[in-house]
Design a protein that fits this description.
Shape of chain B: elongated
Distance between the termini of chain A: 72 Å
Oligomer: heterodimer
Order of helices and strands of chain A: HHEEEEHHHEEEHEEEH
Number of domains of chain A: 2
Number of helices of chain B: 4
Distance between the termini of chain B: 34 Å
Strand order of the largest sheet of chain B: 1-2
Radius of gyration of chain B: 19 Å
Strand content of chain A: 15-25%
Largest sheet of chain A: 10 strands, antiparallel
Largest sheet of chain B: 2 strands, antiparallel
Radius of gyration of chain A: 24 Å
Strand content of chain B: under 5%
Order of helices and strands of chain B: HHHEEH
Number of domains of chain B: 1
CATH superfamily of the largest domain in chain A: Catalase core domain
Structural class of chain A: alpha+beta
Shape of chain A: globular
Helix content of chain B: 55-70%
Number of strands of chain B: 2
Number of strands of chain A: 10
Number of helices of chain A: 7
Chain lengths: 361, 188
């Protein structure tokens, strides 16, 4: 079976070895490039999540953003009105779908005072009867500051505290805003926004666009928002000197009865931007009332049912699809990275910090 | 049923090359999707899950084919250490091509994710929801992917070594049927 070596064997062997080494090297380098190890300039989920930690510190066991929050449970009652646009079972007439949710405030510090930001967030996981899920993370603002993950990373970077002062460098923040005029709508909104005294009185916007798919396969770009029943009725100023009033307010309200939100779905007109969360759609767009979210109970996030849920906005049921919004895959990828970090810390895996519930900055 | 003893059966060869393409693609898709924040992340993930299950099904078939039809013997003059390396790396590859999809499936189950293979095709969970198990399985999935890629590189290098340096018919035993099955390349 063995061929005798031909007379020009040495040269041939050099060629053969070069081919072998070259093939292996090309495969390895390609793998390294695709995996990002040989592409240091690429924005990766790792870098995004690292930047959160650079800005606020590392709080083992916690989400790397929206770290401070509280779990809620309840259900969603469909009105049936969204069914004409989406085959998702959650929208079937009379359908009741159990929900595990989470209210939170933005930022990576789970000990931040509730009044430190004027934004609240609502994340929901709908567990559909057919086993599919719909996860969504919404914020109490009508537009997002930036449209792309690259701009978001630049914003985080600009807000990294200066080691000398412990605060972001105002010049860097100003330079970021100057370079990103798309932030204007958000900045105009944030000037009018005050930290609310309650999660219950807030409106929550999907910000990103999605696509509803009906029974014929027709695609309708949408955004959604949750409108509170308690809107403005009970709104008061946050109690001075109390850093954790939001969870207490929620517990107190839920003790009196369930809290309700109406899920409103806005249908885009042709040409409305679906890839730019900095741009609100015009007010006259058709809006349908998809049903009512009813929240009945809250629980601390350390022991509640939301703790181990990654509210990845790309976990979607049949009938709801992602749009071309570039923030969506970035959120999905970064949340997955954050989820792996915090579950690894919970699991006390090697090279992870132990969760420190009592630690404070 | 009877095949030339110095070649793999046509079924084994077809499965080998089909799965070679799928597994190598899968490894690139896997490391690419977790290192990307762009739309690539989304569509690579959408390919990753059904492709993984397809690999799992093919790996089961392939294992059955392998157990039914022993591979052609390695050349008698192959050093014992190389024979051992060949045997060990082949079984490692079989183990990984079965374990990787199962770990991925179990990992998503433990993380509480619905295991969606498409718009509405959903697999049942094969592991109870448990964040600690998720973390362990997720790290295992990544580590085994690196091991699988390293084993693939070694396997490819060894195959080329057999075909180009030793020219002992081992590479040819896995290549598509050639006119004279006993030889690999004609040196003339």
């Amino acid at each position: 079976m063995h061929d005798p070596a031909p007379p020009h064997a040495p040269l041939r062997r050099i060629g053969a070895w070069s081919l072998i080494v070259g093939t292996v090297a090309v495969a390895a380098v390609a793998f390294g490039y695709v995996g990002g190890w040989l592409a240091p300039r690429r924005l990766t989920p790792e870098k995004l999540v690292d930047q959160f930690q650079h800005n606020a510190g590392t709080f083992a066991g916690y989400r790397r953003n929206h770290a401070k929050g509280v779990c809620v449970t309840g259900y969603f009652d469909s009105s049936g009105q969204a069914q004409a646009y989406s085959v998702a079972q959650v929208f079937a007439p009379g359908q009741r779908t159990p929900v595990v949710g989470r209210f939170a405030i933005p930022g990576s510090n789970p000990y931040a005072p509730d009044s430190s930001v004027p934004i609240r967030s609502m994340a929901l996981r709908f567990a559909l009867a057919n086993g599919q899920q719909w996860r969504t993370g919404m914020n109490s603002m009508p537009v997002f500051p930036v449209a792309t993950p690259q701009a978001f990373y630049a914003q985080l970077h600009a807000n990294q505290p200066d080691p000398a002062t412990g605060k972001p460098d105002p010049a860097k923040v100003a330079a970021f805003f100057a370079a990103h005029p798309e932030t204007a709508a958000f900045r105009a909104w944030v000037k009018t926004a005050n930290p609310s005294a309650s999660f219950a009185t807030e409106r929550y916007w999907s910000l990103d666009a999605f696509v509803f798919v009906d029974a014929t396969g027709a695609r309708q770009p949408v955004r959604w928002r949750m409108l509170p029943e308690a809107y403005d009725a009970d709104a008061t100023m946050p109690p001075a000197g109390d850093a954790n009033y939001l969870a207490a307010d929620l517990t107190e309200r839920l003790a009196r009865g369930p809290l309700r939100w109406q899920l409103q779905v806005t249908l885009a007109n042709p040409g409305d931007p679906t890839n730019d969360a900095t741009k609100a759609w015009p007010d006259d767009r058709r809006t349908i009332d998809a049903g009512t979210l009813v929240l009945e109970r809250s629980a601390p996030q350390a022991s509640g049912p939301c703790r181990d849920i990654n509210y990845d906005p790309l976990v979607l049921p049949a009938g709801i699809e992602a749009s071309d919004d570039p923030l969506l895959p970035a959120r999905s990828a970064a949340y997955a990275n954050s989820y792996l970090r915090r579950t690894s810390e919970e699991a006390h895996l090697p090279d992870t910090a132990a969760p420190t519930p009592e630690a404070s900055r | 049923m009877n095949t030339a003893p110095n070649r793999f059966t046509p079924a084994a060869r077809a499965l080998h090359w089909l799965m070679a393409v799928m597994i190598v693609a899968m490894l690139f898709i896997g490391v690419g999707m977790v290192a990307s924040v762009s739309a690539r992340h989304e569509w690579l993930l959408a390919i990753h899950k059904p492709l993984g299950i397809a690999i799992l099904l093919l790996a089961v078939i392939r294992l059955a084919v392998r157990l039914r039809h022993p591979p052609p013997p390695l050349p008698g003059d192959l050093p014992a250490l190389q024979k051992l390396a060949a045997l060990a790396s082949h079984w490692l590859l079989y183990f990984l091509m079965l374990a990787m999809p199962l770990i991925g499936w179990a990992m998503l189950s433990a993380g509480g994710y619905p295991v969606m293979l498409g718009e509405s095709l959903r697999l049942p969970p094969i592991f109870p929801t448990n964040a600690t198990a998720f973390a362990v399985l997720r790290h295992l999935h990544g580590a085994f992917a690196m091991l699988l890629f390293a084993t693939f590189l070694a396997h490819m290098a060894a195959a080329l070594h057999h075909g180009l340096i030793r020219r002992d018919g081992v590479l040819a035993s896995m290549l598509p049927a050639a006119p004279s099955p006993a030889d690999d390349e004609d040196p003339a």
